[in-house]
């Protein structure tokens, strides 16, 4: 476990990194861009709970499988930090893409789940999005969450009029973003630039009167568009 000052540079997101492998933590720190600053580290459940409570960072990056505690791993850390839910958000970072692992940490309160195959720029972007209260998932993992939780109560289809507001390209972008793809992954999938993706996402949110990617995922799930 290690702790440093939490006063980061302007615009940077402070993060606590939790993983029981020192070499992996070192690699993550080296891959993050200057907009993300690791201010604390932990390698088991008990030290993670202690450091997160001490630093209360905007984001905690944590593995789902951790030693210590009652054996609940990352999900246990999140549950034991529920008193910080107003200020601290959790993003799971794991080698596992098993449905049970994804669902367990989301049920506990995580805002997203990405696999360790993610690269540094995309991980940095994911941290910023979670800090902004967005939900973030590696491609295809979002389906596990939607299958487990279903559409939220009250989210019912209202016909095709809302979907008709979107162009064909905006619908393509909307579906990929709602599934958890990053802007870069959408751009690669559709052979367009990242800037074009950003423009389409802004248009989609405006036309559907939504404020975030998280709301977009719920909107799409309610209409079985994923």
From TrEMBL:
Database matches in SMART domains: HTH_LUXR, REC
PROSITE patterns referenced in this protein's UniProt entry, alphabetically: HTH_LUXR_1 (PS00622), HTH_LUXR_2 (PS50043), RESPONSE_REGULATORY (PS50110)
Stretches assigned to the HTH luxR-type domain: 159-224
GO terms for MF: DNA binding
InterPro entries registered for this protein in UniProt: CheY-like_superfamily, NreC/VraR/RcsB-like_REC, Sig_transdc_resp-reg_C-effctor, Sig_transdc_resp-reg_receiver, Tscrpt_reg_LuxR_C, WalR-like
Statement: the UniProt record of this protein carries the keyword Phosphoprotein: yes
Keyword Membrane appears in the UniProt entry: no
Modified residues annotated as 4-aspartylphosphate in this record: 63
Top-level taxon of origin: Bacteria
Entries under Gene3D superfamilies matching the protein: 3.40.50.2300
Swiss-Prot/TrEMBL GO biological process terms: phosphorelay signal transduction system; regulation of DNA-templated transcription
Domain Response regulatory: 14-131
Protein keywords: DNA-binding, Phosphoprotein, Transcription, Transcription regulation
PANTHER family for the chain: NITRATE_NITRITE RESPONSE REGULATOR PROTEIN NARP, TWO-COMPONENT RESPONSE REGULATOR
Record's protein name: DNA-binding response regulator
Biological source species: Cellulomonas biazotea
Organismal lineage: Bacteria, Bacillati, Actinomycetota, Actinomycetes, Micrococcales
């Amino acid at each position: 476990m290690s702790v440093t000052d939490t006063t980061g540079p302007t615009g940077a997101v402070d993060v606590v990194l939790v993983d029981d492998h020192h070499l992996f933590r070192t690699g993550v720190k080296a891959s993050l861009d200057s907009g993300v600053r690791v201010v604390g580290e932990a390698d088991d459940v008990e030290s993670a709970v202690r450091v997160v409570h001490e630093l209360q960072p905007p984001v905690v990056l944590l593995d789902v499988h951790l030693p210590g505690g009652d054996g609940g791993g990352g999900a246990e850390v999140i549950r034991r930090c529920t008193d910080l839910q107003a200020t601290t958000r959790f993003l799971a970072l794991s080698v596992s893409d098993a449905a049970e692992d994804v669902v367990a940490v989301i049920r506990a309160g995580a805002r997203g789940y990405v696999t360790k195959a993610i690269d540094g720029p995309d991980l940095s972007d994911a941290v910023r999005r979670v800090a902004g209260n967005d939900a973030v998932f590696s491609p295809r993992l979002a389906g596990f969450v939607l299958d487990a939780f279903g559409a939220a109560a009250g989210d019912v289809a209202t016909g095709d009029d809302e979907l008709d507001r979107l162009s064909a390209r905006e619908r393509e972008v909307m579906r990929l973003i709602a599934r958890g793809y990053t802007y870069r992954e959408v751009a690669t999938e559709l052979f367009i630039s990242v800037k074009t993706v950003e423009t389409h996402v802004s248009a989609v949110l405006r036309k559907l009167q939504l404020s975030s990617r998280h709301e977009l995922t719920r909107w799409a799930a309610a209409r079985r568009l994923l």
